[in-house]
Known about the structure:
Oligomer: single chain
Distance between the termini: 20 Å
Shape: globular
Amino acid sequence: MIADDDMQELTVRGRLRVLLSNGWHTLRELSQALHQSEKELISHLEHLRRSKGSDKAVFEVDAPICLQCGFHFSTRERLQQPGRCPQCRATRISKARYRLRPGA
């Protein structure tokens, strides 16, 4: 774990990497912890997903699920929250969660 003083010296992307390495987080939780807008964090998450850092961490997404019909958005490529379910058109959808798992 990194001390609070060291966290302040990191860039937004660096702090995001530390948070995601410590477990699952929703976009809202990340936004509140980093004091950044959810919209801005999407671009940082996209970058972390594409890049392979020196630690070879694997970016994982716990996909959202429709709370009405149970549709699982497992094949969704976009990281932002879906607006409605493609199956039943409901708007009650669970939040996606993200993390960085240590690589091999």
